[in-house]
Specification:
heterodimer; A: mainly alpha; Arp2/3 complex 21 kDa subunit ARPC3; B: mainly alpha; 2% strand
């Protein structure tokens, strides 16, 4: 029955007629942490989508390479993806009296580099946009950019820098995961500020307003995310030291896979 | 020493999650994006979201079910692979011990 609806032309027309009212219905505010469906003007939606697509393609290539390197890495990649899945569903209370959730991209970034995280984040964001009205398809590009590109890139940079200092590794991991979380929501604030500059003060004034919500809410949650990531790494150090040794060996030349 | 590497972080996380509820009683604890929506409407009262979500969970119950499903599926996968790693670690340890006994 369902398949025939999808396959036949009449079925498709029926489906379209059935879903159209849904699409056109007045948007209800959904409690989400990513930019909500329809809340970026279409020009910005297009822009962020265009920016994110090349990273997504590079991400697929990066994952292909990782899989070829060592079949056991597949396990850790699934683990990193599952971690994002779990923490994205956990909306935690913050001292500001509002809620937000960790991003979880720090773990995978440290293991596999930032590009692989673009793919994993996109999967989670699509799931949440389609099934939970959390984020959206028109804002997918913008949300992928903040959580799957900017956050992981910043985290990777922080991790590499921290590794050059005398900091113990667990602290480098903490800072990287903390950064991933914070940068994700700072970029979200910037994206909203660019799209909605204030009349007095422009983008900067608007950025302060949005960051006051997103970024400040995120601080304790980013700390939680950092600790959680260190915890997972502790387990991995105990049981997956072979894989970790291969993935975390100091690289002479830094390449993003 | 090793035990503390797990106990301390878990305690810290529990404290971090509970503290806001104690420090800020009576706060709405809405999603941050709801508040962002209010700001958008203040900055640009004429803004009309040009697209509604394709589908929304019909009720809070269904929504929480889907969120739980998401977390459960993720935890299942994590537990499966961590279990696999720990089993391998144990059997490797046995092999090493057996080799040591032989030698």
């Amino acid at each position: 029955m369902l398949m025939s609806l999808v396959r036949t032309r009449r079925g498709q027309a029926l489906l379209l007629a059935g879903t159209l009212p849904l699409m056109l219905s007045a948007p209800r505010s959904a409690s989400a942490m990513h930019i909500m469906e329809g809340f970026l003007p279409w020009g910005w939606s297009l822009f962020w989508t265009a920016v994110s697509i090349p990273f997504l393609l590079l991400g697929f290539r990066s994952i292909g390479r990782i899989m070829k390197l060592n079949p056991n890495y597949k396990m850790l990649l699934a683990l990193a993806g599952a971690f994002i899945f779990v923490v994205s569903a956990l909306k935690l209370p913050s001292v500001t009296g509002s809620c937000s959730h960790p991003t979880g991209v720090g773990l995978g970034t440290i293991l596999f580099g930032p590009l692989a995280m673009t793919v994993l984040s996109t999967i989670v964001l699509v799931f949440q946009a389609l099934l939970l009205a959390h984020g959206g398809i028109t804002t997918l590009g913008a949300n992928v950019f903040s959580m799957g590109i900017a956050g992981p890139l910043a985290a990777f940079a922080v991790y590499l820098l921290a590794q050059r200092t005398a900091l113990p590794r667990w602290l480098s991991i903490f800072f990287a995961a903390f950064t991933a979380s914070m940068v994700t929501y700072l970029v979200t604030s910037l994206q909203l500020a660019l799209a909605f500059p204030m009349e007095a003060g422009g983008v900067a004034a608007s950025l302060v307003k949005f960051a006051a919500i997103f970024a400040v809410t995120q601080i304790p949650i980013a700390v939680t995310e950092g600790i959680l990531t260190v915890l997972i790494f502790n387990v991995l150090y105990s049981y997956g030291s072979q894989e970790l040794a291969g993935l975390l060996k100091p690289r002479k030349e830094v390449h993003l896979h | 020493m090793k035990k503390w590497a797990y106990v301390l972080p878990v305690c810290a996380i529990v404290l971090l999650v509970i503290a806001p509820l104690i420090l800020n009683p009576g706060a709405p604890f809405d999603g941050a994006a709801c508040m962002a929506e209010d700001i958008i409407m203040k900055i640009n009262p004429d803004y009309e979201p040009w697209r509604a979500p394709i589908w929304e969970p019909p009720s809070g119950e269904i929504e929480s079910m889907l969120f739980t499903l998401q977390a459960a599926a993720g935890s299942l996968i994590m537990g499966f692979f961590l279990g696999k790693l720990s089993a391998r670690h144990k059997s490797n340890g046995k092999k090493v011990n057996a080799n040591a006994e032989k030698a």
